[in-house]
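User:
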Amino acid sequence: MLSLWIALAFVSRHSLIDGLLQPNDFKLLNRVAEPFPDPEASVSVVDLSSTDSSSEWLTSNEEDGTKTWTFDISERGCGSARVHLSSVNLDKDDQILVYGIRDKRKVRTQTFTRTIGDRVYTRRLWAEKIVVRLRMLSSRSKSYFVIRYVQYGDCKTDNLNATKVIPGVCGKKDWKNAICYILDYPDTYRRASSIVQLQFVVKKTTYVCTGFKISDDGRFMTNFHCLGDAQVVESAEILDHYDSKSCKEDKGRARRTMHGDRLVWTSGSLDLDASIFTVKEARKADFVPCVSLTSTNPHFGQQIDLVEHPLGLMKKITIKSDEDVKGVCTIDKYNGSWVFPKYWCYECDMAQGASGSPVFDYKSGHVVGINSFIINDCPNFGAKMSYVKKAAGSHVGFCSSEAVVDAAVRWSGDSSVYIFRGSGYWYYNESCKCTRGDPLSITEYWPGLPDNLDAALVWTDGKTYFFKGTMYYRYDDEQDRVEDGYPKSITSGWPGIPDNIGAAIVFEKSSKAFFFKGTEFWTYENDRRSVRGLINWETWEGLPSHLDAALYLSKSNVYFFKKKQCYKYGVVRGQYPRATCEKFRGLPCS
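Assistant: Predicted structure:
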């Protein structure tokens, strides 16, 4: 009787999303957090599917056969827009041009030159105006299309204060902009780079959800009630790094935009409420790091956190909870959990638009669930990842935890830069900021060096040293080979430095070498004992532990590598960490 009462109470309060959710999907769940619309939405749609409504924006009908429609983005209090076209049929040589106007200049022109079909989604433009032009070269041209609607984004929203009642917020609102946690919770901030915002259209209404990358080959996961249909996936925009640069207010824009391609797998119901999809821009997807999904269930009381896009806002992180005894988000016991055996329960704040966000185990950083829905405003629920992984099987793909870079060094002879990984190495050109060609064999071109190096550095004697396991190698630059008598043990040549180091670096005009392993680092000087310390904010500002490699290029260009990301020393906000393959073009992304 309890579950029936809850179902009647909440299904009557909240409508379903037509075409995505069916009444029988509510066998287990009672209230789904609709992605949108919402009065606080940062996206909106203007419907232009009728001739009369679209003609309002027809600013010219020129004699040369060019028709122009102009839509003012900034006048609506928004920062970006995207146009949805349909019934596109162009004669030979006719064109549709779509571009933005920013500071009285054209930006990012997109051209369509053939019959495209019923659904055309232009790229999102951050501009003051967006312009659609139909250019017909013949007076007999029969080209036509329909401007179905303009989807605005980055619109100004009202301030969300702690006293306003928002479904999904338990007590007062505890989420903050992701950048707010860069100092106190650096690991959570770093894994937030795997989260994207989804904007998609159902029946001329824009909805917003959250998603996250789950595999090296560019698969993403979100809720079934968000992207549970192939056509909806095709309409979806995926905004990567839609983060604010300010802790107190939303300022910024997405670093890159991708578009939905294929629905790989879906649970088909709200029993698990999960879907897996891919994007058209595979290269862009390579820049988004994936997260590890776990089949291990955390215990009750274990700390979790959410990374989400609630209410269509820029990326937020929820770590604290004023409703939990510990003051932080935890997996809770719930007396109705027997109704939802495949779901976690927590009083970690979310809201519409946060559907599909990952539930992270705070300590390991693994995803233990996928955030899904709200019951009676609080608590909130997410499907257990152990059940989702089992149901999806091989469709989940694989997220590698391997390092992209094993070792890197700037050669002492001619200042060339070499990057090593596995059995291969790349020559890095600083002029083009890219590698030259495919990787070459280490054993063939570096006589005497082994594969799978741990670290490399140029020491004060001008020699280049390589480290692997318990041994180190000194390389003869003139003879182009490992010097006679090497390798030697690290303990004999570098007293106090541990075996199996993760990274090593020497700064220019310095007599110190820095070695990193796990959560610790060692400082080494000639004829002096090494000094041991912890990698933290006071010692190495903004760097993570368990580094894989380090590279000194210049005083203002010092890089550290961990798995698929690189960190620029001294830059703790904004552009870093970044995907290593994005910064060092030509390196593999996984």
